[in-house]
């Protein structure tokens, strides 16, 4: 069987996205504000580009396999991280496993990004189920969920697995899915990227000068305007994709492709790695060091995990 050729610019865009996630968590207040506007929506958007419709008759098997591949690493990482930071309190493991099972915004500290895994899984399953419907009906459902997801009634409740965030995430994910043909055609359009960059700069200037109140934090269900939540994140998508298409023309692309290959490992480990340096080793890393350590150590760890079948299954969700 011939292996399907990967889309280089898409792999690079995912690599840039995960680096931006790490950079945003590095503690720099300026970066955290502006990167927060689009870094997680961008991840859902890029993932949606590769989504394929699922036939209803095979939906159960498809959803089961996807859940298995994503949730095994979720609990393995969650347990391993707990053991590293709680060697003297392993009796608390049952409570921790319950917290992992419930998931959502309650997972903090070294588990601060675990919400993304459950939201991504539920988003994919939801769109997989919806893919059997007429496309116009799918779009209506996505729009209704997006608007309803911004209601105080939905936001106020602490949902297991951050399930309420799926109502927002499915918009960005489906946007990548529905627009995949256009995105693949115009991914290297300088005009589109430049125009988007100009408007993004205008938004930043308006915010910096106090003319616009905007924030977006999917994990904490913190979003204040569904119109701006459509416009603002999208302004940053095409510039990132265009930069990725440029990088794909140079040898440095191989480095980004490796980052993209182990993006999930980076997602899981960048916070624990830096918390370990700051608390256990008592070394106060800078934002730059946080980013470098948060990318390089997980990439090396991910490569080690890829060497054996058991670790590929447990930590990478691969056969």
From TrEMBL:
<feature type="transmembrane region" description="Helical">
    <location>
        <begin position="12"/>
        <end position="31"/>
    </location>
</feature>
<feature type="transmembrane region" description="Helical">
    <location>
        <begin position="68"/>
        <end position="87"/>
    </location>
</feature>
<feature type="transmembrane region" description="Helical">
    <location>
        <begin position="262"/>
        <end position="281"/>
    </location>
</feature>
<feature type="transmembrane region" description="Helical">
    <location>
        <begin position="37"/>
        <end position="56"/>
    </location>
</feature>
<keyword id="KW-0808">Transferase</keyword>
<dbReference type="Pfam" id="PF01757">
    <property type="entry name" value="Acyl_transf_3"/>
</dbReference>
<feature type="transmembrane region" description="Helical">
    <location>
        <begin position="161"/>
        <end position="178"/>
    </location>
</feature>
<feature type="domain" description="Acyltransferase 3">
    <location>
        <begin position="8"/>
        <end position="305"/>
    </location>
</feature>
<keyword id="KW-1133">Transmembrane helix</keyword>
<dbReference type="GO" id="GO:0016747">
    <property type="term" value="F:acyltransferase activity, transferring groups other than amino-acyl groups"/>
</dbReference>
<keyword id="KW-0012">Acyltransferase</keyword>
<keyword id="KW-0472">Membrane</keyword>
<protein>
    <submittedName>
        <fullName>Acyltransferase family protein</fullName>
    </submittedName>
</protein>
<dbReference type="InterPro" id="IPR052734">
    <property type="entry name" value="Nod_factor_acetyltransferase"/>
</dbReference>
<feature type="transmembrane region" description="Helical">
    <location>
        <begin position="136"/>
        <end position="155"/>
    </location>
</feature>
<feature type="transmembrane region" description="Helical">
    <location>
        <begin position="190"/>
        <end position="210"/>
    </location>
</feature>
<feature type="transmembrane region" description="Helical">
    <location>
        <begin position="230"/>
        <end position="250"/>
    </location>
</feature>
<comment type="similarity">
    <text>Belongs to the acyltransferase 3 family.</text>
</comment>
<keyword id="KW-0812">Transmembrane</keyword>
<dbReference type="InterPro" id="IPR002656">
    <property type="entry name" value="Acyl_transf_3_dom"/>
</dbReference>
<feature type="transmembrane region" description="Helical">
    <location>
        <begin position="287"/>
        <end position="305"/>
    </location>
</feature>
<feature type="transmembrane region" description="Helical">
    <location>
        <begin position="107"/>
        <end position="129"/>
    </location>
</feature>
